[in-house]
Structures are given as structure tokens and as C-alpha cells.
């Protein structure tokens, strides 16, 4: 039985319930919420992790799907999308029918800004197939959360394979990245300016200029599993890219959502260049970015890079027989 192909396109939609249901609403826009509000947000998130874990354990489709906004969108690890409560509920049903009945959720970082929230984390689902084999699967995710009817709910969610050092195939470009199902949203002029300035900085091999496109308290979760915090570390990271021979980048936003002085974007990026030996270099990633206004300009507050999502292989699933 090919369980991976049956349910993994939508396997991790349940993770977005990590902080859904929080009752502490904030004001939209303006400065970030005070520390006390952030603590309340995190505390509520702990309670909701228990709720979503119980929903999976009980195979409760309605309880699991109820944590999503009416116009929610899930970007699956295979490049597909699921939209709205009905589609997400159907995906949960397939998850349970495949035999998954337990989940472990490990948030890495959660941010609240007014009535928007953002999270990056890891999750593992386990269960038993119809043949009696133990099955499990792990992915990482980023989530955009919003207030709806006075409750925190999932608005956008992206699942991807755990970040790890790039392979030679990825450095050569790998397969073409899938096109996500959400219609391309118009990129606001200020956000487009941010992308243009970043592109120019890469072309000029200017690490400081590239890092200047990030917010003061920025963090970059790189595709190789490392995390860089602050302008100095991010500038050094780009310098390593330049030293390797990369000197050009193409950025393709797939969708952009904004609310007040906060925006979220998913897209594709391709770095190109030439090695010391004269060989052509190419590296592709997908990304999600949490953008914020700082000093009247859009800047990157959190960026997560990951390998292009693709149709899963049987090797990605583990069971007793493997």
C-alpha cells in the first residue's frame, strides 16, 4: 500500500492548529505587542497543541478543520494546495483513513504582531497501516495565523522536507519547482522595491546591502538547517555565497498577503554564478517570508528557505518493513 502517495500531499495540515484558538486579540498594525501579550499568546498556543493532538488521536475531522480560517490555504510538501474548510476536512479524513492517529508538535519560534501570528516548527505523525505496519513521517512548517471571530486560526500554512545541507543535485538546479495553486497576488510597490534592492545587492556582491533589506531583529532560517540572527551574521552568510561564485538572483513571488504593516510571502528563488574553475553554478530554493515595516520601508523580519517541494517518494515514508 503506497501510503505516502495517498496522504502526504496534505499530511501536515493539522500542524497549523498549534496556536489556533487563542483568545487574546491584539490591535492591527503599530508596534509589536507588549511582552505580556506575547506570553499570553504562547500560553494559549500550548493549550491548542493539546487540542490538535487530541483531535488527531480521536480521528475528529471537524475539530481539526475548525482551526482554519474560512479562506485558509495549505501549501503541501508535494507542491499541491488545499483551500477552505471543506478541502482541509477531506484531507484530514484521508490522513485518518491511512492509519495516522498521533502527532508530536515541536514549535521552534512563535511571533505575535497585533492580530497576526507566525510560527516555524517541526512535526511527526505516527500510526498503523491497514497491514499492521507502524508508519511515520516528519516535516517542517511555517504558519501564518490570523484572528477570525475573536479566535486565532490558521490562514496560510507551508509544509516542506526538513532543512538540510544541499546536495550536488540541488546545487546544479534539480527539478523545476512546482507552481503553487494560489493565484499570484499583486506585489505592493514597497515590497517589490525590497525585492529589487535585494536583487541589486546580490548582483553587486554587497553583503551589507543585502543584509540591509532585513529588519533590525531579523532571523534567517537557511535551507541547510542553520539559523542566522542580525544584520552582521546575515551579511557574513551572503559573503560566503559570493565567495563561492554566486552573483545573481531571480526572485519569483507566488503569493503575497498583507495586513497593515505586516505582510507574508511565499515564492521561489534561483541563485546563479560561476565557480573558480569556470563551471556554471545554480541553486534553487523556495521560501516564505514575514515582512514588516521599519523606518517607513518594508523589510524581512523572518525568512525560511527550503528545498523545492516535490511529489513524494516511497523512501520518504518509514514503516516496520523498511
Question: Which structural traits does this protein have?
Answer:
7-stranded mixed sheet; Nuclear Transport Factor 2, Chain: A; 6-stranded mixed sheet; globular; 322 residues; alpha+beta
Quote the CATH topology of the largest domain. Nuclear Transport Factor 2, Chain: A
Number of strand elements: 13
User: How many whole angstroms does the radius of gyration measure?
Assistant: 20 Å
- Work out the count of structural domains: 2
Number of helices: 8
Report, as a whole number of angstroms, the end-to-end distance: 13 Å
- N-to-C SSE string, H for helix and E for strand: HHHEEHEEEEHHHEEHEEEEE
CATH class of the largest domain: Alpha Beta
Give the averaged pLDDT, no decimals.
78
The appropriate CATH architecture of the largest domain is Roll
- Characterize the biggest β-sheet: 7 strands, mixed
Shape: globular
Helix % is 25-40%
Structural class: alpha+beta
- Unreliable stretches (pLDDT < 50, length at least 5) are 1-36, 167-186, 312-322
Amino acid at each position: 500500500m503506497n501510503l505516502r502517495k495517498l496522504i502526504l500531499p496534505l499530511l501536515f495540515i493539522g500542524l497549523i492548529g498549534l496556536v489556533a484558538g487563542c483568545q487574546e486579540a491584539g490591535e492591527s498594525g503599530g508596534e509589536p505587542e507588549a511582552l505580556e501579550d506575547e506570553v499570553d499568546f504562547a500560553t494559549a498556543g500550548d493549550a491548542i497543541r493539546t487540542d490538535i493532538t487530541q483531535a488527531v488521536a480521536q480521528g475528529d475531522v471537524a475539530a481539526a478543520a475548525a482551526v482554519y480560517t474560512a479562506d485558509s490555504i495549505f501549501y503541501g510538501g508535494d507542491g499541491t494546495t488545499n483551500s477552505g474548510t471543506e478541502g482541509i476536512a477531506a484531507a484530514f479524513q484521508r490522513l485518518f483513513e491511512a492509519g495516522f492517529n498521533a502527532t508530536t508538535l515541536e514549535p521552534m519560534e512563535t511571533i505575535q504582531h497585533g492580530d497576526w501570528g507566525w510560527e516555524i516548527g517541526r512535526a511527526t505523525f505516527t500510526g498503523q497501516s491497514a497491514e499492521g505496519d507502524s508508519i511515520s513521517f516528519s516535516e517542517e512548517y511555517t504558519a501564518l495565523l490570523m484572528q477570525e471571530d475573536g479566535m486565532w486560526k490558521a490562514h496560510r500554512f507551508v509544509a516542506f522536507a526538513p532543512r538540510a545541507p544541499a546536495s550536488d543535485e540541488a546545487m546544479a538546479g534539480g527539478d523545476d519547482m512546482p507552481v503553487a495553486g494560489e493565484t499570484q497576488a499583486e506585489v505592493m510597490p514597497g515590497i517589490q522595491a525590497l525585492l529589487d534592492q535585494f536583487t541589486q545587492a546580490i548582483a553587486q556582491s554587497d553583503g551589507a546591502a543585502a543584509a540591509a533589506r532585513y529588519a533590525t531583529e531579523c532571523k534567517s532560517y537557511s535551507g541547510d538547517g542553520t539559523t542566522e540572527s542580525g544584520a552582521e551574521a546575515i551579511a557574513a552568510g551572503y559573503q560566503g555565497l559570493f565567495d563561492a561564485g554566486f552573483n545573481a538572483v531571480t526572485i519569483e513571488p507566488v503569493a503575497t498577503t498583507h495586513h497593515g504593516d505586516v505582510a507574508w510571502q511565499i515564492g521561489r528563488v534561483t541563485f546563479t554564478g560561476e565557480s573558480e574553475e569556470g563551471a556554471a553554478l545554480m541553486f534553487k530554493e523556495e521560501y516564505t517570508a514575514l515582512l514588516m515595516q521599519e523606518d517607513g520601508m518594508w523589510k524581512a523580519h523572518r525568512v525560511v528557505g527550503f528545498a523545492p517541494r516535490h511529489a513524494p517518494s516511497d523512501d520518504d515514508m518509514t514503516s516496520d518493513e523498511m
